[in-house]
Amino acid sequence: MMKTxxxxxxxxxxxxxxxxxxxxxxxxxxxxxxxxxxxxxxEYMCGGSGQAEAAFMxxxxxxxxxxxxxSMNRPGxxxxxxxxxxxxxxxxxxxxxxxxVMADAPHLLARLAPGSYTVEATLDGLTLIQPMxxxxxxxxxxxxxxxxxxxxxxxxxxxxx
Length: 161
Known about the structure:
The protein is an alpha+beta fold. It has helices spanning 2-31, 51-60, 154-158; strands at residues 36-37, 43-47, 66-74, 78-81, 85-91, 97-103, 107-110, 115-123, 126-134, 140-146.
């Protein structure tokens, strides 16, 4: 009687062990935005279109050298997240372009080398410029906010509101 009981529990135990190992890994893989490579050889990641993805981007941002956020003032006291931003990062001392990408999400993370940079973010023909200093072991952050009267592409922005 003991032998039958022990044998009948083995498949159940194996199923529980495999299920607990596979389930968390599968959930983590499907929700993360992909890491991409810019033509200049810099790794970057765009995300933050939905609330869960925005939370993920905020969680991993400290592990990346640079974090960029894009939004537009809304009449009143709010901001709309925006996409379709052309991001250009140049070395502040020699003007060499180290990164140029199109941000297809309101949050972009990049693995920039330590240094001083000039960051240009362009949306609908309006370019905002900020300095950025990347220090080894610390995450730099730049937030770009365009005025509410800018005529950003409505189809791309409606999905984010």
